[in-house]
What we know:
The complex is a heterodimer.
Chain A lengths: L5 E3 L24 E3 L6 E3 L21 H21 L3 E5 L3 E4 L1 H10 L3 H30 L6 H14 L5 H12 L1 E2 L3 E5 L1 H19 L3 H12 L3
Antiparallel strand pairs in A: 2-3, 4-5, 4-7, 6-7
Chain B lengths: L1 E2 L3 E3 L6 E3 L7 E4 L6 E4 L2 H23 L3 E5 L2 E5 L1 H10 L3 H27 L10 H14 L5 H16 L3 E4 L1 H16 L5 H4 L9
Antiparallel strand pairs in B: 2-3, 4-5, 6-7, 6-8
Amino acid sequence: MSANRTVQSANQPMEAQSPATGSRVKTAARLDMVSCHHCATLWKDVKAHDRCERCGAELHARKPDSINRTWALLIAACIMYVPANMLPVMTTASLFEEKQDTIMSGIIYFWVSGSWVLALIVFIASFLVPLFKLAAMILLLIMVQRHSSRGLLQRTKLYRVVEVTGRWSMLDVFVVSLLTGLVQIKGFAMVYAGPGIVAFAAVVVLTMLASISFDPRLTWDAMEYESRKPV
Amino acid sequence: MQEVPDMIACEECDAVYRRLALGRDEVAFCRCCGGELERDISSRRRRVLPLTIAGLFMYIVANAFPIVEMELHGLVNQTTLMGSVIALNAEGMPLVAFLVWTTTILFPLIQLLALIYLLAAPNRPGGFAYRPAFNLLGRIIQTLRPWVMVEIFLLGVIVAFVKMTSMATVLPGPALWALSVLTFLFAAVLSFDPRYIWRKPIPERGK
Lengths: 231, 207
């Protein structure tokens, strides 16, 4: 759809207008401006609980209570991660046997039966992505709380990757829901959803909420903190 | 409270820039972190409404017909989108059923309807749309965006399909094709960010 897009990054940062201040670029927070989170309109002289006059969203310089909320959601997700991987996500009952599957045994089944591509897709979406997401978000939070200014660009990129990949863990939830809906032949073959899928869905939703409530601008606030430090 | 119409702040690192007049399909990126600041969508805007309406038709087909059909020992069973939600709910998984229902049925519908209203409303002869409703729908579209999971559901159908082939004969239903088309339409439609409906042109310098 956008094949003929040209990339342009020659914007003049505010630096050009202001004397060198230690930090590279002027941030909105430093200039006492607030950018609307929904329509990106920039406002100055904003009082608490003011609403954006353009789109009606509440204005705040940073997402409210970002660090605490993200920690709470992440800790809850870590707790749910254990049952999500231990408990069976579905039970397959056929004429002669009943088989219980966890997330991992489902992946192994694909691998053994020769569908390596699918085994890889499910392994990435259901196992690697949630683990990577938990680790990445904890790392981002700890570094924000320590006002670390190391690898700012890499941390921003890490956050972008977490935001894009996180949703794909829902894959296993959809697979289980489809199979329970489809395989309902009484006596011959039945598929039941197991308790593990509830915990797994909770992990996906909680980590998604955590990455939404995290404010990537907090990462860059370390620059401000550093420039204010007495030398 | 005062607007600063000729500047923009990066959403990811808060760096402030003077807005540049963008040419056709040009994108402005943040120099500091590489995040996207603004993009020109004038050429795309006209295409979004027909694509959204096509998406609505595909959505109806995807919901009305079965997604997959399976046959085992002469017994046939099939499921629709709603059918699997109902089956999950019947097995005592109301929360998971609710999650599947919202991400694959409810939110995509809200997204499509809200977008149609947003794109059609300003062109009405009576003047501009009812402002609070317009604003609310625009914000809803942005908030719901990560929770519309049609493309992930499609991949889920493929995985479930392969899983079943060893056990029974499986056939794709008409809804599966509609769902694939809907995935592409959503990808095109959701690249349209409602923030550009709110956007004002950059004021002339020196005024």
